[in-house]
Amino acid sequence: MINPKMMLAAIALTGTVVAASTAAAQVKLPPNVTMTAYDTGTSGFNITVAVGKMFKDKYGSDARVLPAGNDVARLQPLRLNRASISAMGVGVFFAQEGVFEFATREWGPQPIQITLSSIDCNGLSLAVAADIGVKTYADLKGKRIGFVVGSPALNQNALAVLAFANLTAKDVKIVEFAGNNAMWKGIINNDTDAVFGSTISGPAKELQTSPRGITWPAMPFTDKAGWERMRKVGPYFTEHKATCGAGEFSKEKPVEVGTYPYPIYSVYGSQSEDEVYMLTKAMIDGYDGYKDNAPGASGLAVKAQAKNWAVPTHKGAVKALKEVGAWSDDQEKHNNALLKRQEVLIAAWTDYMKGSPASDPAKLAEEWMGVRKAALAKAGMVNTFE
Questions:
Q1: Digit-coded pLDDT (tens) for 230-274
Q2: Is the four-CA dihedral 230, 115, 318, 336 of positive or negative sign?
Q3: pLDDT tens, 330-384?
């Protein structure tokens, strides 16, 4: 069920309806569109509000944004057909895979698919305190790496960056913190040496101005082996030239690092092709109406879309992307393989639940991960989560 507080926090977006252009007239949105996003004030929420206002101004569709503090809460309204689209983070991949918070009796692997997502000027990687003299991520061997208790996404991301340098958790000293802000305070206070985050985050700027300083070692695109190792742990990462953030970033001197899209506008595979097509086309055609209205919104440009990502694109979104020449045969092949992966995972989960799954949540998750591993191996697919 939807959290009543979340419902009360629903943000009704208002605006003035303007005359539609000939191109916009082709888009037919419902009178009301409900979207979910991360908490109020986050970049994902602000971008979604900007998109929603464009829906109102350009297409006359009233939009409301339901803020939710975690991936499960953001997906639940979509799952129950009480929302049309959700601004997800990398949790959309975890939902597809049925891992971490989705390795539960209530969830399991989800047939979740994507439309448009944002990749902007920032990078996502391990920020390293400059005072320890690290030049490459391989230099982190034996150093302290920050983890956040109960935050599998952050921790998995840190492990993925370490994998780029051919390091594992056994090669470093894991230091756990109660939350993300506490972890960043920890690196400033010399309680750890490296933490995962965005180059444009506020805490990264604090570290930059602290006595320790900040550095983001490059992840050269030419290091094919490193990127292959990284994607085995975090297949959602893409190569990215970061040009902004705390550190030595600029358009003239970009740094080759990793990133992944955020927000990722997600839908369920069961949603109609026409519904998803209209939502995606509205975001494409209405881009100029929101791209400058929230930091990161410009990253939703068609040309900025991640190619061959880790979660399949909905057929309605594929139709919209094809219309603007932003879809290739290579993407079609990759997308079909991802759809097959979802089928394998969901079938394995269904068979597992028909048996006698453990009543204890921790035991159930452990059993499921074994079933999942076997199913993927049988299908000749990468496990990713050991």
A1: 999 998 999 999 999 899 899 998 999 999 999 999 999 999 999
A2: positive
A3: 999 999 999 999 999 999 999 999 999 999 999 999 999 999 999 999 999 989 8
Beta bridge partners of 112: 268
Token couple for 268:
């369920």
Going by DSSP bridges, is the β-strand pair 214-215/264-268 parallel, antiparallel, or unpaired? unpaired
List the structure tokens of 266: 């997600």
Q: Classify residue 245 by its DSSP letter.
A: S
Tell me: pLDDT of 324 over 60.
Answer: yes
What is the DSSP code (8-state) at residue 290? Answer: T
Residue (of 260, 295, 48, 69) closest to 180 by Cα position: 69
At 114-156, the pLDDT tens digits run 999 999 898 999 999 999 999 999 999 999 999 988 778 789 9
E strands along 253-324, which residues?
255-259, 264-268
* DSSP assignment string, 147-160: EETT-HHHHHHHHH
Reading phi first (left if > 0) and then psi (alpha if -120 to 50, else beta), residue 308 is in left
Taking a C-beta distance cutoff of 8 angstroms, is the pair 230, 161 a contact? Answer: yes
φ, ψ at 267 (rounded to 5°)? -140, 175
Residue 117 DSSP class: E
Residue 2 sits at the vertex; the CA angle it makes with 342 and 290, to the nearest 5 degrees, is 75
Direct distance between the N- and C-terminal alpha carbons of the chain, in angstroms, rounded to an integer? 32
Beta bridge partners of 259: 238
Phi, psi of 192 (to 5 degrees): -155, 170
For residues 19 and 56, is the Cβ–Cβ distance under 8 A?
no
Indicate if the alpha-carbon torsion angle 203, 209, 212, 218 is positive or negative: positive
pTM: 0.81
DSSP character at residue 10: P
| pLDDT of 305 higher than 50 | yes
Given CA atoms 357, 359, 365, 366 in this order, what sign does their dihedral have? negative
Q: What is the DSSP letter of 25?
A: G
Return d(Cα 81, Cα 382) in angstroms, integer: 31
Residue type, 221: F
Does pLDDT of 5 surpass 50? no
